[in-house]
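Predict the 3D structure for this chain.
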Amino acid sequence: MTRIETVNRTTGEVQDLTVHSSVSAAHGLWFRGGGYTTMGYEAHNALAEADLSGACYKLFHKMCALQNRKDHGLVRVETQAKFAEQVGMSQPTVSRSLKQLAEAGFIYPDGRDWRIRPDFVFNGNGAAQGRAVQSIPADAPDPYTRKGAGLTVIDGGDSGDDGDA
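Done. Predicted structure below.
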């Protein structure tokens, strides 16, 4: 068993990762960063099919990394200028991107902060996610109603002729 401890440089939050394996700690370090956010196939499809700018995609992924893991999906924004500096983008670009992401339904405002739609991303706490899903505003756009959201995912995704059974 190997215990790996990481510290989020922005928030100071300590995150632990325990690996139960016979391999050495060096082999367990492939998982960089400790914290994680996951998305289902339909969420990936909805994001891929959305008509968003490159800056929106960049900001969305940065927001996934910055979200508060104890208050599911919450991204704190002291001021838009400081937030823009934090994510390494210009303030006008951040402003436009936040508006586009909100109009597409991937995020919604929570006071002066923003919240990543909790039925879209998952950060590893099922009980907190369940509570957060119940608090999605009724008027928040649904990102799953966009073009391509009804795609069918086929398990395996291969033709089956590689000889594996």
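The radius of gyration is 18 Å.
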